[in-house]
Amino acid sequence: MTAAAPDVITIKLERTFETMDANQDGYLDWTDYQQLADRYIKAYKLAKDDRRARALQTFCQIYWLELLRHAGVDGDRLTKDQFITANRLAVIDTSRLNVTEGGGHAIFDVIDVDGDNEISKDEFARFLRDVWKSDAPDAMDMFTKLDTDGDGSISRHEFIRAVREHFLSNDPEAPGSLFFGRV
Ligand SMILES: [Ca+2]
Ligand SMILES: [Ca+2]
Ligand SMILES: [Ca+2]
Questions:
Q1: How far apart are CA 31 and CA 110, in angstroms?
Q2: Its domain of life (predicted)?
Q3: What is the whole-number distance in angstroms between the Cα of residue 155 and the centre of ligand 3?
Q4: Gap from CA of 152 to ligand 3 centroid (Å)
C-alpha cells in the first residue's frame, strides 16, 4: 500500500455517518440507532415482542454503548470523527459485543424470512426495496457479489463475511465493501 492509497474504511464510515445522521446536525445520537432498528422492524412488520426484533433492538443498544465507551465521551452523542474512531475500536474489541458477528447474525435472521439459513434472490430484493428503498437496476449486482460461491443464494457464512469486510477491509473490490454502495 502506498502512502497515497485512500483509506477505504474511513470513507465507508464517513458515508455511514452521513446516512445515519438523519437530521444532518453533524451528530449521531441514540435516536439515530433506534431509527435504524425501527427501519428493519417496520419493513418486516415484526411485532415488538418478536425475538428477531428484540435481538436487533438489543444489538443496537449495546453497539451504541460500545461506540460511546470507545469514543471516550461524557455525553450521549458523537461527531463524525468520534464516530469513525469509536467504530474502528469497537469492531476489534469483542469483549462486550462482537459487532460484525452479532450485528450480522441479527440482520441475517430478519432478512432470511423463510428461515432456511439462506438469503434467496427474492429475500434480498425485498431487503433492498423495503429497508433501503432501493429499486436501482444495478442494486441486484450486489447479490451476485455477495453470493461468492455462485450457488444462487447468500449463505449465512457469505453474509457474515461481507459484514466483516464492510467494517474491516480496505479492499474496495471486496464484496463487503459494496454492501452499502461502491467506494
Ligand atoms: Ca443527528
Ligand atoms: Ca431464506
Ligand atoms: Ca452462495
A1: 21
A2: Bacteria
A3: 5
A4: 6
Q: Which three cell numbers stand for residue 105?
A: 447474525
Over residues 64-103, the pLDDT tens digits come to 999 999 999 999 999 999 999 999 999 999 999 999 999 9
Q: How far is the CA of 160 from the centre of ligand 3 (A)?
A: 12
| Residue 124 confidence (pLDDT) | 94
Cite the DSSP H helix spans in the chain.
8-20, 30-43, 51-71, 80-92, 99-111, 121-126, 141-146, 156-168
Q: Which ligand is closest to the CA of 147, given by its number?
A: 3
Q: How many C-beta neighbours within 10 Å does residue 149 have?
A: 10
Residues with CB under 5 A from ligand 2 (ion): 112, 114, 116, 118
Model-level pTM greater than 0.85?
A: yes
Q: Do residues 109 and 54 touch, judged by C-beta distance below 8 A?
A: no
> Torsion angle, CA of 151/157/163/168, rounded to 10 degrees?
-110
Q: Does domain 8-176 have CATH number 3.10.270.10?
A: no
Give 153 Cα–ligand 3 centroid separation in angstroms: 5
Q: Residue ranges per domain, the chain? A: 8-176
